[in-house]
Design a protein that fits this description.
202 residues, 9 helices, alpha+beta
């Protein structure tokens, strides 16, 4: 597998980039986020890459960070999610946002990406929920904590607090993130109060 490309950026669009390395120009499909992170044409650029091979096609995909590439590989491992859909998701959401939505069971947040309907979003949540603990939004609570808060079978104070916030109109993701930042050992009413204070102060 081609791990990365480093060389002169010859061409760049919102969906593709060409980097010349050792006299060879490599064409890579990229997300809109990666396109925004690349320098001006003619500058030296680096892309972390993934060679995706299927029965009928082979393509090189480039990413601005290793985290983006790792998320791409997780997404394409889900049945029904091809590389184009995975890039669309990463164009609409950061890896941390994807992980947080999946960990919280908030499939609706994933439908903002082109080509992702409710059924596919629900499948993503179902198949990836147990794999997202390693991802976290910079400056936010760990996704392992969020996942524990929203995990099935956690019929505890935290899970009840999340349900309470959702009933008040907050999204599953907002509720899970707020409750995860509160000590789950506190009484239910106190957890809800502190979580409401947290989301209300954002």
């Amino acid at each position: 597998m081609i791990y990365s490309l480093r060389g002169t950026l010859l061409e760049k669009t919102v969906s593709e980039a060409v980097i010349e390395c050792g006299g060879v120009g490599y064409l890579a499909s990229i997300s809109a986020t990666a396109a925004g992170a690349l320098p001006a044409v003619g500058s030296e650029a680096t892309l972390y890459t993934c060679l995706h091979v299927s029965e009928n096609d082979m393509g090189l995909f480039g990413f601005a960070t290793l985290e983006d590439r790792a998320m791409f590989q997780l997404l394409t491992g889900v049945s029904g999610v091809g590389p184009k859909v995975a890039l669309a998701i990463l164009s609409a959401l950061s890896p941390g946002q994807v992980a947080l939505a999946v960990s919280a069971g908030d499939y609706k947040s994933l439908t903002v990406a082109n080509g992702v309907g409710p059924k596919l979003a629900q499948r993503l949540v179902l198949e990836l929920k147990d794999k997202m603990a390693a991802y976290a939004e910079p400056g936010g609570v760990s996704l392992e904590e969020v996942q524990q808060t929203a995990a099935p079978g956690q019929g505890n104070t935290a899970a009840k607090a999340v349900a309470a916030l959702v009933s008040l109109g907050y999204s599953q993701m907002e509720a899970a993130q707020a409750v995860a930042a509160v000590d789950p050992g506190l009484p239910l009413a106190e957890v809800i109060r502190l979580a409401l204070k947290s989301v209300g102060g954002k």
